[in-house]
Structures are given as structure tokens and as C-alpha cells.
Design a protein that fits this description.
Layout (H helix, E strand, L loop, with lengths): L1 H17 L16 H5 L3 H11 L5 H5 L17 E8 L7 E7 L3 E2 L4 H11 L25 E8 L2 E8 L3 H9 L10
Antiparallel strand pairs: 1-2, 1-4, 2-3, 4-5
């Protein structure tokens, strides 16, 4: 694209330098809408015509930008957010595997609307609610219990494969940010 722009500027400069001073005449804007009207201006400008106005196949169409391809239409089953949440060692009947569907809400999760709401609140531009704790993060040395969770599926059109535990303060905070998707284990 930059090369084409440079060539256009060079061709314009050459065309302007080839026109004798005083021979330029003003033309109405609608007179420059066809290839024939450009050719009538002379050989230098007629040379520019194939690059910009040629609708027919040939050398000009080989350099013309191709239209962007559209993505395939979304299928109904792809448009939903679907997650599978597996919880172990959480106690008090919270262990198990649950399905969650959002937009529209559904599934076997014990609090479908609350879980979808928590995910919607945590989903901001540039922020992944399932992201692990960044390496090198300073975390408190506290133990939140043996509970673990594994979340898989699709959220906001992206694959999810996230693991959660409560092994330190950062992991506990990460878990708590996703309640009620994950069971509330705060005492």
C-alpha cells in the first residue's frame, strides 16, 4: 500500500511538471468521472487511468486491493457461552460437575443466573476473568482449604481451560471473584 502511494505521488509530480505553465484549465468536477474524460487531458494523465479507474480485468486489477472476506455466519450453537465446572473437595454438597449456559441462561449449575452475572461483571475489555495469577505476583501465605475447580468450555467466543485452588491469598481472591460460578467457601 505504501509503495502504491509513493508511485501515485511520483506520477502526480511528473504529470504536473509536464504541463506547461498557463495551459492548465479548470474543469468541472463531473467531467473527471470517466476514463474517456481523463484520456482527453493528455497522455500523462491517461497513463494514470488504468491504475485507478479500470473496472475490467488486467494489470490494474492485479494490483487492486481484494475485498476482505467475511467470516462465516455464526451458528446458533456457537453463539452461546457454555462452561463445564468441576469442583472437588469443597465440602457441604458443593462438589460435582455442573454445566452452565449463558445468553440465554441454562444448565445444571445450582445458581445459573448468579454465575452468569458474575462472569458478565468480570468480563471487561482486555480482562480475562479466567486468567491465572501473573508470575511474580506477591501473594499472602494463607491457606484457603483443599478445594479445587476446573472450568472448561467457551466464554465470549474464546476457549476456556482454567484451574482454580485456594493455596494462597492470590488464588483465594481469584476463586472468590468468580463466586457463585465457583462455590462460596468464605467462612
Amino acid at each position: 500500500m505504501l509503495r502504491r502511494l509513493v508511485l501515485t505521488v511520483a506520477a502526480s509530480a511528473a504529470a504536473l511538471s509536464a504541463v506547461p505553465a498557463g495551459s492548465a484549465t479548470a474543469l468541472p468536477a463531473d467531467s473527471l468521472t470517466s476514463a474517456d474524460s481523463l484520456k482527453s487531458l493528455g497522455p500523462v494523465i491517461a497513463h494514470v487511468e488504468p491504475i485507478f479507474l479500470s473496472p475490467s480485468p488486467g494489470p490494474a486489477s492485479a494490483t487492486a486491493p481484494k475485498p476482505a472476506l467475511m467470516p462465516p455466519p455464526a451458528r446458533d450453537e456457537d453463539s452461546r457461552d457454555r462452561l463445564t465446572v468441576t469442583v472437588h473437595d469443597a465440602g457441604s454438597g458443593a462438589d460435582g460437575t455442573y454445566d452452565l449456559q449463558c445468553h440465554p441462561d441454562g444448565g445444571s449449575h445450582p445458581d445459573v443466573s448468579g454465575a452468569c452475572g458474575a462472569l458478565d461483571r468480570g468480563a471487561r475489555w482486555g480482562k480475562d476473568p479466567f486468567a491465572p495469577v501473573s508470575p511474580g505476583t506477591m501473594c499472602t501465605m494463607q491457606y484457603g482449604g483443599p478445594a479445587t475447580a476446573h472450568v472448561t468450555g467457551t466464554w465470549a467466543g474464546r476457549p476456556v481451560d482454567a484451574r482454580f485452588d485456594r493455596g494462597d491469598g492470590c488464588q483465594i481472591s481469584r476463586w472468590n471473584a468468580l463466586t457463585p460460578l465457583l462455590p462460596d467457601l468464605r467462612s
